[in-house]
Each structure stands twice: as C-alpha cells, then as structure tokens.
Design a protein that fits this description.
alpha+beta; 15% helix; 11 strands; globular
Length: 189
C-alpha cells in the first residue's frame, strides 16, 4: 500500500488515512452471532438498525441519516471506513488498510459528513454513497454495515437513536444489545 500523500488527494486536499490506532477502541470489542453487538461494541446507551423504507431512495435515506447524525454531533472530523470487497469503491484504493471484524480490510479516512455523502456512488447494500463504517472523532456514535447485511447498525446516545427512530426516511428500529439485529421483513442470505 502507498504512503505517498499524493495518493490521498481528493477535492483539492490531502486527507489523513487512519491506522489501527484509530480503530483500536473498536477492534476486538464486538461479539460473535446475530446481535447488534456483532457490528457495534456494547459501549453505547442505545442501538438501532435501519434501511430505506419502501418508496425512499438510498440517497434520500442516507441523507436523512447523515442529517440526524450531524444534528447530534459537535463540529469535528468523522472517520469514514470503506470495506475492501474488490467490487466496491474504497475511495483511496492505494491507501493502507486497517483490519476489523475478523480481519476484514477497511480504508479509513478522516473527513466529515459532506465526504460521507459524496465520495462514492454505491456500496454493497445499494446505490447510496455512505461508507460501510463511520464515527465521529469523539466516538459518541458508530454506524456499521457488515459486508453481508442489507441493513445498517448504529450505537449512540438514546437521544440520537430516538431522533433516527422518529425520522420516517431513516426507518430505524431500536434494538437491545442482545437482540437479533435482523430488521423485521428482511432475511439473512
């Protein structure tokens, strides 16, 4: 992998690429199984799963998610993690990667909500732009979509999860840390 800063230029600036130290708080802290803590460590006050409701585009759904997250997050950088699958854009393909969730490789970039919504055009869950993993620098919440899930998981404050739950474009369902993360009406592949 490259260490040449010219490989990490986008939107006219050089972006900081994350290391294992930046995700050490997450690495090895999730559980095995079907509960939400397989994707989100059991350190948050509240948890939910979400996916686009019928009739809502991925882009509109993900914009609503980011709007809610930004409303509950003081101004600070966000870490954006792009899972390397070989089939989806990781934004900086020559960047060093970090390993999470049983040795899955992610490109981790320090950026923000605007970049989360604009840097790629699709992911493994659909046509939306969101990274597969992202969280603010203060780690007050974590959004994670595991490679084989068609939904997304979040852990954060009760107020944030409540706001996501109330937003009809987000389609969030609250779950407990030991609950099955599979949203009603979806099936495991």
């Amino acid at each position: 992998m490259s260490t040449d800063p010219r490989d990490f230029v986008r939107d006219g600036r050089v972006w900081r690429i994350g290391t294992a130290n930046d995700v050490a708080w997450l690495a090895g802290c999730t559980t095995q199984g079907v509960s939400i803590t397989a994707a989100i460590p059991p350190v948050f006050d509240a948890y939910a799963t979400f996916y686009p409701p019928d009739g809502v585009s991925f882009v509109d759904h993900e914009l609503a998610v980011v709007d809610e997250l930004a409303a509950y997050t003081p101004d600070q950088p966000w870490w954006l993690g792009y899972l390397f699958t070989g089939a989806h854009d990781v934004v900086f393909p020559r960047a060093p990667r970090v390993s999470l969730y049983g040795d899955w490789s992610y490109v981790l970039v320090e950026a923000g909500p605007e970049q989360a919504l604009t840097w790629r055009s699709r992911h493994s869950r659909g046509d939306g732009p969101l990274p597969d993993l992202f969280f603010p620098a203060d780690r007050s919440w974590l959004v994670s979509a595991l490679w084989d899930d068609t939904w997304t998981d979040i852990g954060g404050s009760a107020a944030l999860v409540g706001a996501l739950h109330r937003n009809p474009l987000v389609n969030a369902r609250r779950v407990g840390p030991d609950d099955d993360a599979l949203p009603p009406g979806l099936t495991r592949e």
